[in-house]
Specification:
The structure is a single chain. This protein is an alpha/beta fold. It is built from six helices and six strands. It has a four-stranded mixed sheet with strand order 3-2-1-4, with helices on both faces. The protein has a two-stranded parallel sheet with strand order 5-6.
Amino acid sequence: MIKTTRIRTPLGEMLAGATEEGICILEFADCMKVSGELRDLKKLLNAEIKQGRNIHLRHLKKQLKEYFAGRRTEFDLPLLTPGTKFQQAVWNELLKIPYGSTISYQQQADALNNPLAVRAVAGANGSNRIGIVIPCHRVIGSDGSLVGYGGGVRRKKWLLDHEKKYSGQPVTMQLF
């Protein structure tokens, strides 16, 4: 069973979902890909989806509140991320990007020892179903441009500026 709930954030409402094993989705509710991701999760996990709550969703809500208040720089939640081995590697690399920092898609491909896989890395980042917690928003273009965020460039910029503000690093991001 995948239990789902909605969580209000400064950037809009998010849809969160979790099984007994952990969080499996956290997406902005107005993103067009949410229904497809839920359909995929239902199939991948052979699970029904039902509105409700569980311990993981309660912890997620609390930790998101702390994150948006600038009091949390890392999430401590069990995650359930079905995907290919390549996707798993890409998502694990995302978890290594420090709060308040950014890397390029090329740097992420290099870190995976696959420097020619920039487009595949970007595609796997786009398949990340657990926004903010698995911080795909911290990946930018090689030229510093804010590209490739399912929640939209405006939200990506807000999240990066927010993290810079609370990490003590100067906020220098600009939209190109």
